[in-house]
Structures are given as C-alpha cells and as structure tokens.
Amino acid sequence: MLRMGGGSARMGGGGAAGFGDIFGSMFGGGAPGGRRGGARRQTARRGQDLEVEVTLSFDQAMAGAEVPVTLERREACAMCSGSGARAGSSPRLCSACDGRGSVTHDVGGFSIPEECPQCGGQGTVIDDPCPDCRGTGTRVVERRIRVRIPAGAKDGTRIKLKGKGGAGMRGGPAGDLHVLTRVMPSAIFTRKGDDLVIEVPITFAEAALGAKVEVPTLDGRVAITVPAGSQDGRTLRVPGKGAPKLSGKGSGSLLAKIRVTVPSSLTDKQTEALRAFSDLDTDDPRARLFT
Ligand SMILES: [Zn+2]
Ligand SMILES: [Zn+2]
To answer: Residue 9 and which of 64, 70, 88, 253 are 20 to 30 A apart at CA?
Structure first.
C-alpha cells in the first residue's frame, strides 16, 4: 500500500511493494506447463493500492462532502492506449514461444518449461515502443480527482474506492484507492460512536422545577424536556438526532448532558429570594457522608 499524506501525494520510486506485486508474483510470470493459447497474458499484474488522507471539518463529515485529492497514480499511457507500442503500431505475437510466454527444453527426455527469453514471458514483442511510456503501457501521472465522502465519516474511517488506485499491468485489474478521513473536532458536539454528546447548561431553577429547553442539532433546534429534580450530569436521549450512520441507514442519538450552572452574581432581590428558599430547605445533601 502506498501511503500519501495531506491530500497531496508523492509516489516512491517503486520501493513500496503493494499487494499488486505479491499478486503478480503469485499468478504472473510464466507458470510452467501452461495451456496453449494465442494471446495469453503471462504477466498480468494488479495495480498498486494507494492511500490518501483527507481532513474534513466536523460539518463536512456529518453532511458528507466531495473533496479534491491530488495523487500520483499509474495510469494507462494516453499516447498508446496502454499497448506499449508506438501509436499506429501494435505488439506482435512472440514468434519464439508462439505467444505462450514459455519455451520447453528437452533435458534427458524430460520437457522442462522455462520463461521465453525472447519476450520475457510476456507472449508479445514490441518492435517499436511508445516513446511516452517506453513500452510499458503505463505512466505515472499527477491527478486531481474528487472523492465522495459519505455522511457520517469518522476520524480514522477508511473508505475503499475500488479500482481507483494504480492501473494494472498487462491487463491486470487496477488497484484500489483507500481514503483515510481525519475529522476536525466540533466546538459543540462530541462523537461517541454514532451518538453525538452535547453539554446543555441549565439554571438551578430549571433543574429543580423542570423546563423545556432548546438545543442545537445537526439540522436545526429541538426542544427537550428537563424533568423536575434533574441532577447535574443527567443525560437525555433524543433518538435520530445524532451522527448519520455510515451505512446510510438512519442516525444515532443526540445525548444531551445536563450541566447545572450556579449564578456567579446575584441581585439583592435574588439573594433575598434564595435565602428565603434556603430557610425552607430541610434536606441535608451531606447526610449520606456521615452514616
Ligand atoms: Zn505509451
Ligand atoms: Zn516469447
């Protein structure tokens, strides 16, 4: 897997051995005793898997976004349409192996197959190579593509775009492009799975008496009912108002965490009222500490 950072990418000089290389060495390269057949592709090789990292704002991640990504990717050569032969010409079947890619030697009565020295196991020979790709049929080009990020992407989500990686060689399939999403934090919401946690400050009076308070969601406000006698830290669940699920099926919940606030200054009248309240309050909140 070739790793790219920060939305733009560099490609190492073939140092990163991708899955394609392993695949290629397993299934390519002139297997001995192959069937006869004209245009066998002896060295079909899957293209390289690429990875690119994109950074999204919290809102982009929630809504889904189409983001531009710059990457260096091996693609079929535009000049020769991937054939490797100069435009106007085409590769010819190797006469030494008749296109099979392997030739046999008789050693003491045994037929030992070996890679055709004429075509290097490819079955075809290019007499007049394409000058753009020097006969390889592919070129590494810098591409700016737009990548669709589905709603609900998390920090660290890997999205696989099948076939958007490097081009395959000699008819091999293209590799995949993996998009790793980084999501900036929100000033208001904290993500917990598919749920969104929001801290909701309420006054002591609202907590004690109960209240209907408005809280923001991803799409407008909702009114939540704080039951009378709610303690600090109580969490109220609003189903369906959390983060969109990556599966595309619904959303998590909004978890409204009540934070009881204490006024930092009081008017004379408020002080008077609170003292009157306090005089009537017979509960000892610390009774449990001394049992
Ligand atoms: Zn070419
Ligand atoms: Zn050959």
So the answer is: 64
